[in-house]
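Pasting as-is:
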Amino acid sequence: MKHQVSANKSLGQHFLRDQEVIFSITENFKDQADAIIEVGPGPAVLTPALASLNLPFHVIEKDDRFPELLAKYLPKDHIHLQDALEINYDEFIKATFPQAKSLWLVSNLPYNVGTPLSILFLRCPAIKYMSLMYQKEVGEKIYSFAQKQKNAANSLGTLVLTYFDVKLLIKVPPMAFEPPPKVDSVVLSFVRLENPAIAYEQLDSFEKFLRTLFAQNRKQMGNFLRSSFSPEKLQAAFSAIDVPLTARAETLTLEQVQELYKLLSVKE
C-alpha cells in the first residue's frame, strides 16, 4: 500500500501498511464499544474499517495534510485538527460523545509522544477501551510487568496497570510500516478497571511517588527513600508488605507498590 502523502519525520510518522495488523487493531473492541476516537489517523489507514462499524466516530489529527483524505470516511465536523497532547479529553468527550458508555480510543502512537499521550488517556475515566501502538521497548515496560515477569516493575507499567487490564494484542515488525522504523513495535489492548486500587483523586500523588520510587530502580530502596520518609515510617511500611529495605524497586509486585504508596502517603 503506497500512501499519497509522505511521512513527516518531525512528527514521528510511520504509516502502517500490514493488513494483518490493521485487522487486529480494528477488530479489537468492535463488539464492546459504543463510540470511537482515533488519535493520529494520518492517511486513513485504520479509519475506513473503524468508520464501517457505524458507531459515533471522531478523529484527532495534528497534520493539516490529512483532513481532506479523512473526509472520505467521516463528516468534516468529526475531524479535529488539533495537537492530541493539548486536548482536555474529559471536556472533549463530554462535548462529542455525551451518550457514550463504552468509548474506545485507537491510536498508532508516534514513538516520541507515546508515553505522555498514554498518561493523558489514562487520566480520562470516560475512555473504557484502548488499542495503542508502541515502540516495543516502551510497550514491554507495560506488558512484561502485566505478565508478572521477574524484575519488571517500573513507573509507567505500574501507573497503567493500576487503572487498566492490559494484554499484548500483536507484535509488529518494522516492515509493517512505511517508512520502516529502526525498531520493532507492539500493539497493546487496554480495558479500564472499574475499581482501581488507587482512586483517581490520588493519581497525581501516586504518579509523583512512582517517579521517586523508580528514579533509582536498581538501588536499595531504603537508601534513597530515607530522604523522603522517616526511618520509622519506612521500616513499618516495608515490614507490612514483607519486603526488606535492601530490596530494589524493580523487584516489587504491582500490589506491593500500591500498598507501599498507601502506607507511606498516610500523614503522620
